[in-house]
Amino acid sequence: MIIPSPDKLVESNVSVLAKFGYKAFDGETEDWSGMWALLKGDFAGAESSSVPDFTAMTPSQQEAAKIYMRRRLIADRFFEECRACQADLYKGIDTEQMERYTLARDAYEDSVNHFGEAREKLEEIMKGVYW
Question: What would you report as the CA-atom Rg of the chain, rounded to the nearest whole angstrom?
Answer without folding.
Answer: 17
